[in-house]
């Protein structure tokens, strides 16, 4: 196979455009002898004669024109590569793989992706729904570039493998049956519901969040039913089986459920993003993080 040299091919192309070795040297900021030497080397590398003397000038051979015809496709592709690389450096191109927990996908990731389609169409975001443990395993293994989780489930802030980025303090509202005596009370505190049966998971982060919020309000919640999925929890609230704390990001309107905001002792859950240490400076990842922050600000109470 011939030994192709892009720089020397560029010199040959310039010679075709400028017509003389002297003009080529001026255009490329070289000496005429350097131009002649580079073209002689290219001729030896390709094994064909590229130039013929024509008086005081040189003329491209048919072999040289054939070589340049194929080289043009290479030059065109390199121009595209330069343009894409420049866009990547500016954070306008690239692929970012995101692992996010279920309620963060419609609430934060989808709005961020929608905004990026309009402002940074060169960035491709690949979304993978994954709860915290799986998301951080994927992040550590290099299978996703960015993971979203609750702060309580995120790796320690001193873990050198990851950089944590706060996104949102998501308020927790109380879901009450539509006919509950306190559903339309003028003011509602969490402590007003101390005697109610509560619906939350038997273990895991949401159980800890519910217990912690209620204990901070001065009581230990009685778990009347255990469920982990929001459709199941809200269906039981609608049926009058109990009350529940529901993050605002996860709330889905139901006719038989009243969502009440807690103003005095409002609990929140903190949503964070994490990337591998140092990756937050990668242009495309930084652009996606900016879009996620913007989506979070839109949801901020």
From TrEMBL:
<dbReference type="InterPro" id="IPR036388">
    <property type="entry name" value="WH-like_DNA-bd_sf"/>
</dbReference>
<dbReference type="Pfam" id="PF03466">
    <property type="entry name" value="LysR_substrate"/>
</dbReference>
<feature type="domain" description="HTH lysR-type">
    <location>
        <begin position="4"/>
        <end position="61"/>
    </location>
</feature>
<dbReference type="Pfam" id="PF00126">
    <property type="entry name" value="HTH_1"/>
</dbReference>
<protein>
    <submittedName>
        <fullName>LysR family transcriptional regulator</fullName>
    </submittedName>
</protein>
<keyword id="KW-0805">Transcription regulation</keyword>
<dbReference type="InterPro" id="IPR011991">
    <property type="entry name" value="ArsR-like_HTH"/>
</dbReference>
<keyword id="KW-0804">Transcription</keyword>
<keyword id="KW-0238">DNA-binding</keyword>
<comment type="similarity">
    <text>Belongs to the LysR transcriptional regulatory family.</text>
</comment>
<dbReference type="InterPro" id="IPR005119">
    <property type="entry name" value="LysR_subst-bd"/>
</dbReference>
<dbReference type="InterPro" id="IPR000847">
    <property type="entry name" value="LysR_HTH_N"/>
</dbReference>
<dbReference type="InterPro" id="IPR036390">
    <property type="entry name" value="WH_DNA-bd_sf"/>
</dbReference>
């Amino acid at each position: 196979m011939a030994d192709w040299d892009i720089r020397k091919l560029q010199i040959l192309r310039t010679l075709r455009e400028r017509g003389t070795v002297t003009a080529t040297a001026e255009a490329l900021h070289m000496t005429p002898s350097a131009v002649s030497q580079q073209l002689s080397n290219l001729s030896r590398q390709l094994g064909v004669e590229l130039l013929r003397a024509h008086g005081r000038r040189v003329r491209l051979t048919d072999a040289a024109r054939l070589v340049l015809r194929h080289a043009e496709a290479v030059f065109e592709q390199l121009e595209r590569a330069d343009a894409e690389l420049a866009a990547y450096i500016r954070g306008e191109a690239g692929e970012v793989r995101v692992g996010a927990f279920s309620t963060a996908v419609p609430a934060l990731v989808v709005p961020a992706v929608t905004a990026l389609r309009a402002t940074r169409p060169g960035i491709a975001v690949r979304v993978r729904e994954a709860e915290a443990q799986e998301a951080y395993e994927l992040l550590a293994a290099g299978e996703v570039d960015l993971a979203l989780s609750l702060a309580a489930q995120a790796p320690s802030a001193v873990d050198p493998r990851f950089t944590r980025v706060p996104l949102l303090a998501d308020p927790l509202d109380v879901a009450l049956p539509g006919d509950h005596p306190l559903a339309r009370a003028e003011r509602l505190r969490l402590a007003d519901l101390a005697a109610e049966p509560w619906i939350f998971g038997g273990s895991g982060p949401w159980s800890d969040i519910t217990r912690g919020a209620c204990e901070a309000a001065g009581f230990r919640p009685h778990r009347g039913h255990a469920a982990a999925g929001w459709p199941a929890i809200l269906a039981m609230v609608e049926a009058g089986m109990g009350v529940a704390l529901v993050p605002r990001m996860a709330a889905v309107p139901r006719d038989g459920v009243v969502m009440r905001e807690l103003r005095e002792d409002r609990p929140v859950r903190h949503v964070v993003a994490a990337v591998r240490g140092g990756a937050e400076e990668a242009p495309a990842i930084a652009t996606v993080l900016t879009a996620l922050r913007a989506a979070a600000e839109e949801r901020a109470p």
